Amino acid sequence: MQPIQDPEKLKEIARLLRIDCLKMLHQAGCGHTGGPLGMMDLMVALYFYAMRHDPKNPHWEDRDRFILANGHTCPALYVVLAYAGYFPKEELQHLRQLGSPLQGHPKRKVEWGIEMSTGSLGQGMSIGNGLAMAARLDARDFITYSFHSDGEAQEGMLWEAAMTAGYRGLDNRIGILDDNGIQIDGYNKDIKDVSPLKEKFEAFGWLTRSIDGNDMEAIMAALDWARLREGKPKMILAKTILGKGVSIFENLPKYHGVAPNDEELAIALKELGGL
Ligand SMILES: Cc1ncc(C[n+]2csc(CCOP(=O)(O)OP(=O)(O)O)c2C)c(N)n1
Fold first, then answer.
1. CB of 35 closer than 6 angstroms to any ligand 1 atom
2. Cα(25)–Cα(37) distance, rounded to whole angstroms?
3. pLDDT in tens, 142-187
4. 118 lines ligand 1 (CB under 6 A)
């Protein structure tokens, strides 16, 4: 796919995909709303600006790989993949239905752009390392991106793998961590504060960059930075707002894992200009 260079176009795609995401969740009657809305700007920048991929050739050996380690936020991944053309948009209506490939957590289906089954938090970092090491062994120049969350950063497994990536200097590896301060049971600071993430990743051998993860220009600059730096894995620490774009969801832990009801959907669509 040709990268979209205009941040205004990317912002518009993010707005449209927030609407698709909410409609899909409303139709399903269950699923995660807050995380996907918060990370949508990052996902749009990844798939329409930064990553090398071709929806018409999903098995392309040299495609960049994307692993959604915080698998519960897959509604964001599904709308991005449908918009990119990996599968028909109508399939979004079948989210979480029996028999649909679009389950509540990603199930691997490379033809549809879903690189790996995820959902058990912490595993995605190791999967990313494996792909990055395979690229090295095969002398391929694809980049492996993995997406993480602050709640996930409470998992020990994430840190074991982060240590490996640093130790091996996996510079073909880019992480993005959605730091929205919220997890399933409330605010991280009231449960187990994972800060300072920057110092922790740096101590484990990563280069880091902290950004506002809802600022499209900042996201694009950070992805450029990450692609150009050599010698170490790179982690983009993105502060986002859970539920971004819909005032009644923003920053409220309740919306970590519930779908919008009729009334909430109406308010959300009005605010996002989706009516
Ligand atoms: C190993 C593991 N333990 C527990 C869970 C249950 N779980 C699902 S989402 C979640 C909270 C994750 O926090 P975060 O991703 O920061 O939440 P969000 O930003 O999406 O609100 C938990 C504990 C899980 N998926 N995997």
1. yes
2. 11
3. 999 999 999 999 999 999 999 999 999 999 999 999 999 999 999 9
4. no
Is the C-beta atom of 149 inside 6 A of ligand 1? yes
Nearest CA among 20, 108, 12 for reference residue 68: 108
pLDDT digits (tens, 9 = 90+) for 20-62: 999 999 999 999 999 999 999 999 999 999 999 999 999 999 9
User: 212-215 long-range CB contacts below 8 Å, 24 or more apart?
Assistant: 212/238, 212/239, 212/240, 213/38, 213/39, 213/41, 213/42, 213/176, 213/178, 213/179, 213/238, 213/239, 213/240, 214/38, 214/41, 214/240, 214/241, 214/244, 215/41
Q: What CA–CA distances, in Å, run from 146 to 71, 77, 162, 259, 261?
A: 11, 12, 11, 25, 31
- Pull the structure tokens for residue 130: 């494996």
CA angle 82, 223, 59 (to 5 degrees): 40
The verdict on the CB of residue 203 being under 6 Å from ligand 1 is no
Q: Can you give the pTM of this predicted structure?
A: 0.98
- Domains annotated on the chain, with CATH: 7-272 (3.40.50.970)
